[in-house]
Write a structure and sequence with these properties.
Number of domains: 1
Number of helices: 2
Bound molecules: zinc ion
Order of helices and strands: EEEHEH
Radius of gyration: 12 Å
Number of strands: 4
Largest sheet: 4 strands, antiparallel
Distance between the termini: 17 Å
Strand order of the largest sheet: 2-3-1-4
């Protein structure tokens, strides 16, 4: 299962997550999945968000447009999560 994360101005609302390092909020777009699967995936998403920092604790360490977890090496138009988030117009 793959998720798309996009920067958000607010951490309030459904399917939002905040970076444990800089506090940047993200909106998460899930592929069709159960609550259990989402809960299990949340830890992976948090780890992927923290990985962006690599010694830089600014919120600018995160991709400007958005990113997929786990990383997607193909075209975004073939990723269901990216399609859900309307991300097919930009490359990752
Ligand atoms: Zn961060």
């Amino acid at each position: 299962m793959q998720v798309l994360c996009q920067k958000s101005n607010s951490s309030e609302g459904a399917d939002k997550i905040s970076c444990s390092i800089c506090g940047q909020a993200f909106q998460i777009f899930w592929e069709r999945s159960s609550q259990t699967e989402r809960a299990a995936q949340m830890e992976t998403v948090m780890a992927a968000i923290a990985e962006h920092h690599q010694g830089n604790d600014s919120h600018r360490a995160h991709p400007h447009t958005g990113f997929l977890v786990p990383g997607w090496s193909g075209l975004t138009k073939f990723s269901a999560a990216a399609l859900l988030g309307g991300a097919q117009s930009w490359s990752i």
